[in-house]
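Reopening this one. Same input as before:
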Amino acid sequence: MRHDRGQHTITGDKAMLKRFFTFIFITAAALMITVPAFALRAGDTVRDITLTDLQGKSVSLSHLRGQKVVLNFWATWCPPCRSEMPEFVRINDALCEKGEAVLLMVNLTDGRRDTKERVREFISKKGYSSLRVLLDQDGRAADYFGIRYIPTTFVIGSDGKISGAIQGATTEDAVMKLLKNTK
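Same output, byte for byte:
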């Protein structure tokens, strides 16, 4: 009889454990569905953010007001980020030629996986020195924009409002199309 009670307790514990993990799974799934991919949405006005570039110069979004801005969040260790870099070189060349917008590449410089030196070496070795790379060393820009996945690209209109965002690796055509529809 005692043996049966022990079996009953183990079976009851397994059932309770199964219900607990089911609850955790459902809660996590619900949170993933309800949490927006971006903290900022199209139409939101972007507040001023100041970051430092690879040359040590400060770049503020407020100084770019009146111009369209393409803002790409990336990291050197991110395969999709690395694969889209040639696209951004072409985008930058086109934007510089037309004077249509400013491209800023915001590196998630966490001090471990990406450091200023590692980013500088990556840009130099790959021949991406034409890109304006900003370092988000404290993560404030990524937090403000609600970056959950990289790469993520935002297009900001000349009025300082977000026109649109692209989550994941993108192409020159997709960014230029978004820019074309931006005031």
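So the earlier flakiness isn't reproducible anymore. For the record, The longest helix spans residues 2-34.
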